[in-house]
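Write out structure tokens for SURF1-like protein.
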Amino acid sequence: MALLTARLGLWQWSRAGEKLALQEAIEARASAPAVDARELVGTGPPALLHRTAVLRGQWLAPHTVYLDNRQMQGRPGFYVVTPLQLADTDAVVLVQRGWVPRNFAERERLPEVATPAGEVTVRGRIAPPPSKLYDFAGAGQGPIRQNLDLADFRAETRLPLLEGSVQQTGPASEGLLRDWPVPASGAGKNYGYAFQWWALCAVILFMYVWFQFIAPGRAKRRD
């Protein structure tokens, strides 16, 4: 048991190192030069994850989706997702434009979000598709949805959507906040688990020494 708990501690320590290395790789990608639409289409968003991007295009406002039960700054509301038709290409990319609070008195009322017409420039970072929550029945259609499945949305809209998405960054604008959660390595948890396993290992060794050597020796001396 002592060997097992010691080995588990080493495993958690190595997992922490792997997560820190991944975090460093993400930060290095984020500091690389921004990609444009041509590179995004040519390489594909999955290969460019965490890179910054500066994209020109037009919002396809009729296909805007409001993802429900999303939080920002501790408040519940919507993530607003709108496809962006990339300039000088046939490709379309989903843009997570930001967060807006929900009207809980009129739950079906859509929040006011300004969507500029004409060509716009969007700055952001390449991200996976919007994260998914528990899907309630009937929450997969209409402008207000619980989740957005990229393949299903591509078939529904018949848009040539790229894989992945772009999280728009920058100060609040158009009625949207963009205080996105920063990805954390989570290495601290693994370090904590490692010390817990090693503490258990130390307890097991102490108990073994106590009951195998110290306690019997003390009993013999009393006899």
